[in-house]
Design brief:
- This protein is α+β, with helices and mostly antiparallel strands and 344 residues long.
- The chain has helices at residues 72-86, 111-126, 132-142, 200-206, 213-233, 236-255, 266-282, 305-317, 340-343; strands at residues 8-22, 27-28, 32-33, 37-55, 60-64, 93-101, 154-157, 171-173, 185-190, 286-290, 296-300, 324-329, 335-338.
- Strands 1, 4, 5, 6, 7, 8 and 13 form a seven-stranded mixed sheet that branches.
- Bound molecules: (3R)-3-hydroxy-3-methyl-5-(phosphonooxy)pentanoic acid (PMV).
- The site of (3R)-3-hydroxy-3-methyl-5-(phosphonooxy)pentanoic acid has 14 residues, from loops.
- (3R)-3-hydroxy-3-methyl-5-(phosphonooxy)pentanoic acid is lined by residues 20, 23-25, 37, 110, 112, 143-145, 200, 250, 291-292.
């Protein structure tokens, strides 16, 4: 429950970004997925949103690092309107949200996932709603993949016969995870920090008339079944196979779409080739994946952290490869922290 002191409530929501192993690419209706997706929740790459609330008349202000910005701002307003429509009690407040991301812009980490999860969780806290399903449902309406950032470690979004409590409306925990995959690391290799040349809206749109869409949605389901079994058994070979095919399928869809987009760069492919040969030669428990951009995520077993980081650092220091690195790890979903005491 949000605490008001002298008519003002001050709290922060910390919401992580997530990286999909099974990709959501293609949507229908009110932001519903054409296939189920499965992601790992990150720890360090997150959005921190401070909420300052006082009694008022339903004025909503959204700031990014202290100033109003066009773009994310309008998405944030739309989400506020949706939540206030379902919970009109919110209209008795004036709400100022000041958001910042802990990760650099253009790092290939989805800020809409963490940003929308933080916003949904904070606004719903004002209506005393903490049920993760509801938070996830509204986060989804802000940005599809955001619904997965509410949950710890691994989250699944989309109805699947393999998880009876799964739904297209919200994400849920994937709890049957072998010790091999707990606290999995994610080394992010930034080969380009240029803005994405295709918005995810345009990317999803591509799937509405893509010649391979129907088969892609079926294959995503098949891949999900293989991944769930691998996660349960601790099967790295299975995870590597599915995870890397999913990344390449996402990019193939873009390349063979109408219009066609190429979001990988030569550096992405060069890295993939080097990585696969090092990984296979040294039997490293690690797999790459890609988001809708050129940067690479190297998912790896907790026990492989040193080997993976040492190899990446060496690759870069020897100038065999130009990139920046960010190291992350699987962690907790969105959290709300009361700041009113710190303020007094
Ligand atoms: O949530 P959106 O609309 O930004 O779409 C995210 C799409 C991917 O990041 C490419 C895949 C995913 O499942 O996160």
């Amino acid at each position: 429950m949000v605490r008001f002191t002298k008519g003002v409530a001050l709290f922060e929501v910390s919401a992580p970004s997530n990286i999909a192993l099974i990709k959501y690419w293609g949507k229908t209706g009110n932001q519903l997925p054409c296939n189920p997706s499965l992601s790992m929740t990150l720890t360090h790459a997150k959005t921190l949103s401070q909420f300052k609330v006082q009694i008022g008349s339903g004025k909503f202000t959204f700031l990014l690092e202290g100033s109003e910005r066009i773009g994310f701002d309008s998405k944030a307003h739309r989400l506020w309107e949706k939540i206030a429509e379902s919970y009109p009690a919110l209209l008795k407040y004036d709400v100022v949200v000041d958001s910042r991301n802990t990760f650099p812009h253009g790092a290939g980490i989805a800020s809409s996932a963490s940003g929308m999860a933080a916003l949904a969780q904070g606004l719903l806290a004002l209506a005393d709603v903490t049920d993760k399903k509801v938070v996830s449902d509204f986060a989804r309406q802000g940005s599809g993949s955001a619904c997965r950032s509410v949950f710890d470690q691994f989250a699944l979004w989309g109805k699947s016969e393999h998880l009876p409590h799964s739904s297209d409306l919200y994400a849920c925990d994937v709890s049957n995870i072998h010790a091999e995959f707990v606290n999995m690391g994610d080394a992010i290799v930034i080969v380009s920090s240029r803005e994405k040349s295709v918005s995810s809206t345009a990317g999803h749109e591509l799937m509405n008339h893509h010649p391979y869409a129907k088969r892609r949605f079926e294959v995503a389901r098949e891949n999900l079944a293989i991944l769930l079994a691998a996660l349960e058994k601790g099967d790295w070979e299975g995870l590597i196979d599915v995870c890397e095919r999913e990344a390449l399928e996402l990019h193939s869809m873009m390349m063979t779409g109408r219009p066609s987009y190429t979001l990988m760069t030569p550096a992405t492919l060069d890295f993939i080739i080097r990585f696969r040969s090092w990984r296979d030669e040294n039997k490293v428990k690690a797999a790459f994946t890609l988001d809708a951009g050129p940067n690479i995520h190297v998912l790896h077993a907790h026990s492989e952290k040193e080997r993976v980081e040492a190899w990446l650092n060496e690759l870069i220091s020897e100038k065999k490869f130009e990139a920046r690195l960010l190291f992350d790890v699987a962690g907790l979903g969105a959290q709300t922290i009361d700041l009113s005491e710190a303020q007094q």
